[in-house]
Amino acid sequence: AEELRHLIAAMQNEFQRLRSSKIQAEAKAEKLQTDLSIQQQEMEQHFENLSMENERLKSISNEHQVNLENLNAENARLESVANENQANFARVLNKVRVLENENRSLQ
């Protein structure tokens, strides 16, 4: 009977130890689950912030692309005007030479 009491006491102690271990493991699992949930929320918020920043940068990039295209068009127009002015200058210079030659011949 004494042996049986010791066996029952040992089993009760083991049961209490296992119950305590189970409670600790459940608490740790709950804490880990909470930490994971917080990290997921933080990552989702970070992802959302990055997505918004990406969209903002895309918009800026598109604006810059439009500006670049406008500048290229303006540059092409100015090059055309410069070429036309150069051609006009060459014609005027030729006329000046012709007039200078005529002027010399008249002297």
Describe the structure.
There is one protein chain. 98% of the residues lie in helices and 0% in strands. The relative contact order is 0.03. The protein is an all-alpha fold and 107 residues long. The protein contains 1 helix and no strands. The protein has one helix at residues 2-106.
Which labels suit this protein?
single chain, 107 residues, mainly alpha, 0% strand
Strand-helix topology:
Layout: H1 2-106
Strand content: under 5%
| Share in helix | over 70%
Number of strands: 0
Low-confidence stretches: none
Distance between the termini: 153 Å
Please report the number of helical segments: 1
Computed structural class:
mainly alpha
Name the average pLDDT: 97
The geometry reads as: rod-shaped
Biggest beta sheet attributes: none
Q: Measured on Cα atoms, how large is the radius of gyration?
A: 45 Å
Kindly summarize this structure in a few lines.
The protein is mainly α. The chain is built from 1 helix and no strands. The longest helix is centred in the middle third of the chain and has 105 residues, at 2-106.
